[in-house]
Every structure is written in structure tokens, then in C-alpha cells.
Amino acid sequence: MHDHLGSTAGPSQHVAAAGRSVCPLRFPRRFPGERGCGSRAGCAIVEASPPHPRRAPVCRLLGYVADQPVSVVDVLGEDGFARFTALTAVHGDGWGMAWQAEDRSVRSVTVPGSASADPAYEGLARKRLGRAGLVHLRWASSGLEIATTNTHPFTDDGPAGGVAFAHNGHIAPIPRLEGLLTAASRERLEGDTDSERYFRFVLQCAEEEGDLDAGLVRALDVLVREFPTASLNALMLTPDQMFAVHINSSAAAPQRALLELFDRPEEIPSGHSAEAYFAMDFRTLPDAVHVISSGLDEEGWTPVPADTAAVVDLATRRVTALRRPA
Question: b/e for 169-187, b at 16 or more Cβ within 10 A?
């Protein structure tokens, strides 16, 4: 279920249980094998995309899985929540949340405006909505409208309680990405973003594979080959799992766009340097697993290894690394 305000087992390898150090299996930038779209339904895109020089603004993410319902403020603490929300100085083009409701369905809210200017954002952030959830702060890429249909998380009701997806990156050119979609997937598009097309491609691959884990791995296989300079950082929530993707080692940070927002470089928020811009960190606690994109400068977080993808089981908080099927 999705609201607008103001306008199972798969091919995985066990890594660690909650409370232990986690180091997901490395997800290579390029898999061996033939070039192609990876879609059994067929597509017109068969050649690798050349590096794309444009540096596009992107977003910020937070994901959490706990043993009982928690709020975003519970996850970050008052100071951490204030610092995360302050990132709207850059990422103020929309906000959204998704969570696992009491009936295990995935619920979500999106608003095409700044979180810091919207009382509904703080109101939801202080509610213990569920045991698992994600938050997205958007910095819109040039040329993409600030609108509800372009605001993350993107959702699909699906037959199993729904799925929500939030992306921190940019995949270009968008028409080339859309070319990976079948006609049925294109019909489900509502907005203009590359992120929604990324989401639809993941669901398309999952439907063809008959498994979400395998579908995500297959989609990433195609995307790292066809768009080698893109950031594919993302969080995806289902009634049973949270997926975290940290693939961006060849992506260029939007330093010029950042400098246009501030009078002096030292005013740019923490975690927005060229080296740290696409970083993701995690922490495992006895009762929770958290993952966050760069922007909080505090102790207790461990960097997620480069070019990896992992999944957290919502019932056990067990973290496993996604691997390519043999």
C-alpha cells in the first residue's frame, strides 16, 4: 500500500548473523560471459554503454531491520536523526519512507518536497511503524521533475505483500535503460526517472527467474556490464527481506553540482567528498541491523565493502551475500 502526502530462499551464501561483523561477498563489476540484455523476453540493447561523463546529483538512504517495531529516531538517535535530516540542505527534492506493517505488508509514503520543511516527515520518523523500513532523501538529477511519480521509494503491490525500492545513483542514458524493459514493464512506469526503470528491470528479471534473489543478481549482472560508470546503490524491502546494493566503484561524484549549492567548499555536508559520496556503512547490533549512505560522521558504523550486494532476513536478521548463480 502506498500513500502520497502533500501532492524466500534464493542463490545466496551465508555471511553472518546479526551481532557479528559482516563482510558481504564481492560483486564483480563485470561478470564473464556474453554481452546482452539478460532478458529472456528479449530487448534491443545488446552493446555495452560507453562511460557517461555527466555527473548527476543523487540521494541518501537509510535502512533498518529490528526485532521489534522501531522508529527512525530510535534507529539514529536524536542527534543522528537531526544530522540525517540536515542533509536536505543538498537532498531536498523529495522524501519517502517504506516499512513492514503489522500485517507484514509493505507500506510507503512519498512527498515531492524537502523533508526538513514537512511536519509529516518528522511525525512519521517518530512513529514505530514496523520492525523494518527504509528512508530516502532525494536530490533530483538535472532534467527530472520534482513530482510524486519521481519520488522514492517506488513500489509494486505484487502477490506477496508488496515491494519498495529506493536508489542512490544515476543510470544514463535513460532511454537505453528503458530499452531493457519489456512492453509489460514499460506499461507499469509512472514517472521519468532512471531509478524507477532500474526497479522495474529488477522485478522483470525476478519474474522471469521465479525468484527475487536470483532476479536481482541477474539484473545487476546486466547493469554493471551495460552501465559500468553508474552507481547502483539501492535498498529494496519486501515482507520477508531487505536487500542492500553497494555497487558504484566507477561512478563519478557530482562535485561541481555540490559546489554550486554552497558559497564555500567547507560548507558541503560530511560524507559528500568525491571519495565518500557513494559510500555505504552498516552496523550490526544484538537486536538490529542498520545500513546508511554517507552523510553521518559518527562512530559505530563500518564501511560496506565496494561492489557488493547482500540481503537481510527480516525474521532472523541474518545477513547473506548475494552471489551469481552457477
Answer: bbbbebebbbbbbbeebee
**CB within 8 Å of 169: residues ≥ 6 apart:** 58, 195, 230, 231, 232, 233, 234, 248, 251, 278
Residues spanned by the domain of 103: 2-322
Average pLDDT per 10 consecutive residues for the chain, totaling 326 residues: 47 32 40 34 32 47 96 95 78 84 94 87 96 88 77 87 91 96 97 96 96 95 94 95 88 50 52 59 94 75 90 96 73
Joined together, the cell numbers standing for residue 25 give 561477498
Q: How many distinct structural domains can be found in the chain?
A: 1
Grid coordinates representing 138 are: 532525494
C-alpha cell of 92? Answer: 531536498
DSSP 17-53: -TTS---PPB--SS-SS--S---TT--S--SPPPP--
Q: Is the pTM of this model over 0.90?
A: no
Three-state SS at 176 = helix
User: CATH code at 179?
Assistant: 3.60.20.10
User: Look-up: residue for cell 529472456?
Assistant: 40
